Amino acid sequence: MRFMILRKADKDTEAGMMPSEPLLAVMGQYMEEMTQAGVLLAAEGLQPSSKGARVRFSGGKPAVIDGPFTETKELIAGFCLIQVNSKQEAVDWAKRWPALDADGEAGIEIRQVFEAEDFGPEFTPELREAEERMRAEATQLANDAKR
């Protein structure tokens, strides 16, 4: 099972404050522990919402709203994508989040990622095959771009 560990934004992350060296060190240790355990798939911090945008659809037509966004509690400052055996294991990893972050006041949300089998028979073998091809191609293109 894959889960997203979402680090909720706060006034400091939205102000664009960069983490201190001690915080970077403990976050690095945390990521290393997840890597060594074989559960970490990806992890990134996000720029403040002032550098982002939202696209809302009404009647099928998009409208772009530039950041910043005022509802900080609804925003995400970063994420980890992990693969574990249960929700409890994801919770256990989230509980190990470094206490130094946000002076011990960080907000963490855990969300399970949909897997192909979750969609039932509507996700036909042909659609699954097409998605697998797309994912393989996207991975290859990303790897090529790194070179």
Automatic annotation (TrEMBL):
Coiled-coil ranges from the UniProt annotation: none
InterPro entries: Dimeric_a/b-barrel, YCII
Domain of life: Bacteria
Pfam families in the record: YCII
Segments forming domain YCII-related: 1-115
Transmembrane segments: none
PANTHER family with a match to the protein in the record: BLL7163 PROTEIN, BLL7171 PROTEIN-RELATED
Similarity field: Belongs to the YciI family.
Name of the featured protein: YciI family protein
